[in-house]
Every structure is written in C-alpha cells, then in structure tokens.
Specification:
single chain; alpha/beta; eight-stranded mixed β-sheet; six-stranded mixed β-sheet; globular
C-alpha cells in the first residue's frame, strides 16, 4: 500500500519518522520536512504500534537530498535495494548533520546528558564523494557464480561488477584476481581484505581473497600499519577477522584515544591501564608504549584468533607488561590479578550492543578514574553512559568520526572522569 506523508524528523537505523492517522511510520530514504509517497512494508494492516516503509516518490525534496552516487543502494522503487549505503540519498554535509542529531538525541534521551558533539569527516572522503573507503567487503555468489548482493526483502541476488564503497586498492586487487569475472560456487561467501598501503607503499601480497572462509589468493595473515604520535605500529591481523574497515579509521581513532589517555595520565611515572574488547591490539600497543614511562596493562578480548594476533603483536615489541587474555569481558574482570586490579584508565571498544551495565559497574568498582569509551552505536553508548553517570562519572569529552560515509553508522569516542577516587 502506498501513502503520502510529511516526514518529521530523523529516527534510528537510517530512517526518518512520519505519521499516518496518528500511527508512527519509520521511513527509509527520507529526509525531515519532505513530502513523499511511501510504500508500506507488508503486512501493513497489522495493529502494531508502528509501521515501516520506503520512499517511492519525492514530491517536495529536502535541501540535503542528492541523486544517489550508487543507485543500486538506493530505494527499491528506483532500481536499488542492495543495502550497504542507507544514506546514499543524502549530501555529505547532510550526513554529518544527521549523525550529529542522532548522537545528541540518543545521549539526551537514554544517557540523560546534554551534548553538542562534533562529527569529523575522514581525510579524502570529501574528494572521493564519500566513496572508496572500505578496506573489507563481503558478497555472495549468485546462481551464475558471480559476486552479488541480495536485494532487500527478496531472494534476488543482484550481480556486481564493482563496489563503489571499496577502496581503490581493494578494487585493484579485485580486478587483478578477476573477482568480477565470477566462477564461484553459487551461494559462496566472498570476502576481500586489503590493508591500506602506508609508509613504503603497496605490498605485492598484503591482501586476501577468501571464499567461504578459505584463502583463494593473497595471504591469511595481513599487515596493518598505524602511525601514532610519530611512531609506526605494525599489526598482524587475520584476513577473516575484525579490523576497522575505513582506510583512515585506525589512524584517526587511535590518535584521538592516545591524546585523551595522555592527558588523563599526565606526567605520572607509572600507570595501570585496561583495554577491554581489545581485538588484535589496535589500542593496546600504543597505550602500552606512549602513555607513561612504566605502563602495565590488562587487555581482554573474546575472539581467540584476535587474541593470538594481539599476543604476537605484543611480543614483536617486547611488551612483557601486558597481560593479554582471551575470554568474556565480564567474567575476566571478576578475577583480575592484584597488580592489575586498580586501573588508572580504562579504554573499551565494545561491539554494537555495547558494554552493558555489568561491565560498566565492574569498571567503577575497580576504582578507575578515567574511562575512554569507543562506540560504534550511539544508542548503546547512551545506555552505558546512564550507567556510568549513576556510578559517579561525568562526561568530560565527546567526539565523533564519520568512518562509515553513506551509512547511518558513526563512531563516537567519549571520555568519562570520576573525581575524588
């Protein structure tokens, strides 16, 4: 069923809100203030509190509306529907306004704090029109063995001959390895991981093409390089594992986190630091070497492969004062060795669901004066903010990074401080 409606405001998950006869409707590919025709998702006659739908026609466009730079990711009615870029209809400046409003609204509604966040665009993104930023992509082989993406709400697989969000280095690898030519088993999962070249330029084999998790070309262990405060750190990471996907994200996030950490630790001769949800050690290595003359650390990560690589990365720098553990974060924090039990600073980078109240309370019970929280979801950050504030912490700094252009996702870094501990 199609309905005509006036869009009112931003909502979550890349949608906006309007009303039909008093019922809330969450609309994809809309903008506040627009008059649009919306196709309601089936079933649309149910008695739910809200409905969902998608724009099929724009009668009065908002100032931030643009023609999608990647039409396949746009609305279904306009030939799109493959997903992966739910703000493709929004100008780059408009995307920053959207993300700013979302963070501020969630922090107020769920975190009960007032914020005026700044969202930084990554270097090079404006020049590339918000495209060519992903160093990892995943696709599925269609019935003819070609790389494809599923069209939303259907079983249709749309074949691809390029990926506009992929970095230029990744596209070069895809061309060289004839990925777009197909020849895959129908239904196979295809993943390309291509670290962004830094320092000495491109490496001939520092990439991976994986099919159903098995290496087809390149190498399984990749090298990522991140320069922080003038020092280059080299990380061995699993080609099938997690790494910050934007080509500039590791530099921007790590530089900001280390700057905050140094300010909190100050000129102390020694410090105890926790790095929670630590992955392959993106923050662990610079925290261990750049924050105080004698830093002892606990890092905790649930993924075995990630911890294996983190331990290797630590050994390569002879960082013996880091206890890198594999396990559930809450369970691990229940049994911390005495020499690491009272952290001066806690850095945490949880998954999209957030750290949850138990971990936040464990951090507070350990007496940490400062907490740096890296969040990929403003809603989860806001919920955990409410817990930290209830435990006596004050939000002292909040800054966001647009490391997911063309999407509603945004990375936010918040600093919490508790006085008198």
């Amino acid at each position: 069923m199609d309905v005509r409606m006036r869009i009112e405001r931003y909502a979550d998950q890349g949608r906006c809100v309007g009303h039909i006869d008093g019922r809330v409707v969450f609309v994809r590919f809309a903008l506040p203030g627009e008059l649009v025709d919306v196709r309601l998702d089936e079933p649309h006659d149910r008695d739910d509190r809200y409905w969902t739908g998608e724009v099929v026609n724009v009668l009065e466009a908002g100032d931030d509306r643009v023609e999608p730079a990647w039409p396949l990711a746009g609305p279904l009615a306009m030939g799109g529907g493959v997903g992966g870029a739910d703000l493709v209809h929004v100008s780059l400046d408009g995307q920053l306004r959207w993300k700013t409003a979302t963070i501020n609204e969630q922090m107020s509604r769920l975190g009960h704090v007032t914020t005026d966040v700044t969202v930084d665009r990554m270097p090079g993104d404006e020049q590339s029109g918000g495209l060519h930023w992903r160093t990892r992509i995943e696709m599925i082989a269609d019935e003819d063995g070609r790389p494809s993406m599923r069209r939303r709400g259907t079983h249709v697989r749309v074949p691809l001959d390029t990926m506009p969000l992929a970095s230029r280095e990744l596209l070069d690898v895809a061309d060289a390895e004839h990925v777009w030519d197909g020849g895959f088993e129908p239904g196979a999962q295809i993943r390309l991981s291509v670290p962004e070249p830094r320092e000495n330029g491109k490496s001939d084999d520092n990439y991976a093409v994986l099919v159903d998790g098995r290496l087809r070309a390149g190498r399984q262990e990749l090298t990522e390089t991140v320069t922080v405060a003038g020092r280059a750190f080299h990380y061995q990471v699993d080609a099938n594992g997690f790494w910050q996907v934007h080509r500039q994200a590791p530099l921007a996030l790590t530089g900001h986190v280390i700057d905050l950490a140094r300010r909190q630790i100050g000129d102390a001769a020694s410090a105890c630091v926790w790095d929670l949800f630590s992955g392959s050690g993106l923050f662990t290595l610079p925290l261990a070497t750049l924050t105080s003359p004698r830093t002892r650390m606990l890092s905790v990560e649930g993924g075995k492969r990630a911890v294996h690589h983190a331990q290797r990365n630590l050994r390569a720098l002879d960082l013996a004062d880091v206890d890198a553990r594999c396990g559930d974060v809450a369970a691990t924090l229940a049994q911390v060795p005495a020499n690491l039990a009272r952290p001066d600073l806690v850095v945490l980078d949880p998954p999209r669901a957030g750290a949850h109240a138990k971990v936040c309370r464990q951090i507070a019970a350990a007496g940490a004066r400062s907490v740096i929280y890296i969040a990929c979801d403003p809603t989860s950050l806001a919920r955990d903010t409410a817990t930290l504030v209830a435990e006596g912490y004050t939000l002292r700094d909040i800054h966001a990074f647009d490391i997911y252009p063309m999407t509603h996702h945004v990375e936010t870094v918040a600093l919490f401080v508790r006085e008198g501990r």
